[in-house]
Amino acid sequence: MDMKTNKKRLHDIEISVLDLAPVLSGKTPADSFRNSLDLAQHVEQWGFKRYWLAEHHNMEGIASSATSVLIGYIAGGTSKIRVGSGGVMLPNHAPLVVAEQFGTLESLYPGRIDLGLGRAPGTDQMTAMALRRHLKGSDSEFPKNVQELLHYFSSKSNRKSYVRAIPGKGLNVPIWLLGSSTYSAQLAALLGLPFAFASHFAPTHIFDALKIYRDRFQPSENLKEPYALACVNVIAADTDEEAKRLATSLYQFFLGVTRGTSKPLQPPVESMDGMWNEFEKEAVRHQVYYTFVGSKKTVKEELQEFLDKTQVDELMVVSHIYDHSARLRSYEILSEIWNEKTED
């Protein structure tokens, strides 16, 4: 192992939360929103850096479709944790509208709002068509739309423009690029923006993306040095056995993704045997390769190994746990890990 990999410990980096506002079986989106706020209030007390919400559409198990509205709800119910999007799927929105929404949020909650941008639709093609009305050039226009957003927030380049984001112009809303491949890594490096990799569902290209981002990074007025975040799944509990049982809700969720079906997050089961075939099992296991399940000791060791390999500057955690109290406990265990001083 490279000596460099021995230097960065878990307590040296920031830890954050990604929330999809999961809709639980037998519950409603309103219940999801209350749970999200409660989780945000707890992780704020436990020292987590930021709380992001992910835009998805037409999925019965995910209630975070109106992402900017939820960000305002969470920011309004907390006091210091950064709140943002992980992310806003930019092809679904006019850049000016996004600038106005996040300019409004930053005006209401100054110094606490992040704007993470993705280039996928966050849904199926038919729903994407309903969102955008047309799909012409959406992918190829992503770099131009990102630069348009940067322009709307700039106090310099947008000073004399006829079209301005009000509120938005001149406000310091950090823009992140999100990716599950190397595409956004290259763009984030070129524009000098922070980069977040979605390794919680797309593990394949993480090392290539991080290398490209770091090697090609060009300092900007937004960021002087590369800053990389990786998102992972964590299911932590007081015992390995309990964590493994809780993790079956995660596996059921991704089994639905594999099958192209959508349903609310299901309660845990004692075993996934009989619920999936071998092909589905392997497909799910691949998608959630960077999933860390177990007791505090187990999760701590595995997350440190992940950090050794990636050397990211921040870890973001998503936890598909059915029981809200168990979900809280999982994040509490993470806070205990981060607050422990590791003997090097």
Automatic annotation (TrEMBL):
Family of the protein in this entry: To bacterial alkanal monooxygenase alpha and beta chains.
Q: Which segments constitute the Luciferase-like domain? A: 26-309
- Where is the secretion signal located? none
Give the GO cellular component terms, alphabetically.
cytosol
Under Gene3D superfamilies, the record lists:
Luciferase-like domain
Give the species.
Bacillus smithii 7_3_47FAA
Q: Name one GO molecular function term.
A: oxidoreductase activity, acting on paired donors, with incorporation or reduction of molecular oxygen
What's the protein name? Luciferase family oxidoreductase, group 1
